Amino acid sequence: MSLTRSILTPLGSYAGLQRADQLWKSLREGTIPTPQVVETSDQPLSTIAWDVLICGGTLGILVGAVLAQRGYRVALLEQGILQGRVQEWNISRQELQKFVQLGLLTEAELATTIATEFNPIRISFAEQEIWVKDVLNIGVDPVQLLAILKQKFLDAGGDLLEQTPFKGCTVHPNGVAVRSTSNSLTARLMLDVMGHFSPVTRQARNGQKPDAVCLVVGTCATGYPNNPAGDLIASFTPIQNQCQYFWEAFPARDGRTTYLFTYLDAEPDRISLETLFDEYFRLLPSYQSIELEALKFQRALFGMFPCYRNSPLQPKWDRILAIGDSSGAQSPLSFGGFGAMVRHLERLTQGLDEALQADVLDRRSLSQLQPYQPNLQVTWLFQKSMSVEGKQTLEPDQINQLLRDIFQEMQFLGDPVLKPFLQDVVQFGPLSKTLAQASIAHPLLILKILPQVGLPALIDWLGHYSNLAIYTVLYSWSRSFANSLQTWIATLPPDRQYFWHCRLAAWKYGSGADYED
């Protein structure tokens, strides 16, 4: 019996790992079936029960609670019972304040959702260590957070339909009819929040293979020496199995959570999740300076996060919008999920509010809520430089050396450059300073990474980098003339107001100007 199997079986996680591995194998081989769950009809619905029907409750409740509090008729479908997982969600405090700013939580309620808080957190590549504070240093208790939001949603008049799995839907000219196990539910708009492998998303992507995948495995365990610090990203081994291994570690309420993750493509010969877990257990003693026998494992964690260059996913049908992981609206360097949803929560809920008021729910109008974001697209080159293509031969320490050089210059430039990047926000000014500083300190850097990433990828990146500059200028311009611009927008019809507000938000988020410290 493998070490992974012997540890995960008593935790009740080995069967889940096997299912995830089978899904990962099917993804690599391109054999995942494309469901046909969305149909269209030219006949209008006779009655419409809700304004918004949200499919997927774990993160859908964030959007649903805001819309319900604004007076919309909202129903939320969850295939099981809506409750948070035991494992904490890590986030930064300024990001968490969005819940207070949106009126979802009071400061006192927010405090009850925080399970852990720690400082500092480390970035480490072999011999180099950088320490920062207040980045992903808050561990949120999902059980407590979702329990509060669930009650807020119900108090605001929302309808929670638990143990109601999504089976399919039909788009009509005036609404959407969603099929569940035993009934049909109607709404003006349907939000797909069912995650990366949502059947609606799979139909929309029509069998498209992801351009990149992040594989993650890990555990939460007790028995570690007291360590109040965390690791945001750490690497201490050379390239192995055509992968560069990266680590994360966070203090948790019931132990310490450690993750091993790697970036790779979805070619058939890539390693399995179980093999990556074997590597995790092999290297964990070296990483945390402790023997496995000293640890008591509480739970196992694993997953895969597919990324697509043509993200966020544009609506394929009227009256259906994918948000969160269903839309792929995260950078290829992040895990998406809770942090990505919170980052865009204000923009999405404000845009949905206006779209519902103006009744602009066709796919062209809804696409304004999933705009092109150059600050996310530029990270594709970073992802490519942190991964090894299947047939590439790189120097064993090439990726570690590259990251050492880049982060050394970011550290030299200080927190205004370093901290936004660590929170998955790329801005034109800090990025340009880093590139300029790196080119002076390491003049051969581009020549070293060009064979790895390829000339086409670099040319593509230059286009997104230019657009990042343009979006930065446009957002700065919109801020300079904010009063005049808002006065002019207020004179427009509601549908044009919606369009312009979406455009201004696209410039803001696409330039990374939404970052707050």
Explain this structure:
The protein is 44% helix and 20% strand. The protein is an alpha/beta fold and 517 residues long. A hairpin with a 2-residue loop joins strand 15 and strand 16. It is globular. The termini are far apart.
Q: Which key phrases capture this entry?
A:
8-stranded mixed β-sheet; single chain; FAD/NAD(P)-binding domain; 7-stranded mixed β-sheet; 517 residues; 3 domains; alpha/beta; 20 helices
Short summary of the structure?
The chain has helices at residues 3-11, 14-29, 57-69, 93-96, 98-101, 107-113, 142-155, 199-205, 273-288, 337-358, 363-366, 374-377, 379-385, 398-413, 415-422, 428-441, 445-453, 455-480, 482-490, 494-510; strands at 38-40, 50-55, 74-77, 89-91, 114-117, 121-125, 128-132, 138-140, 159-161, 168-172, 175-179, 184-192, 212-222, 230-235, 246-252, 255-264, 296-307, 320-322.
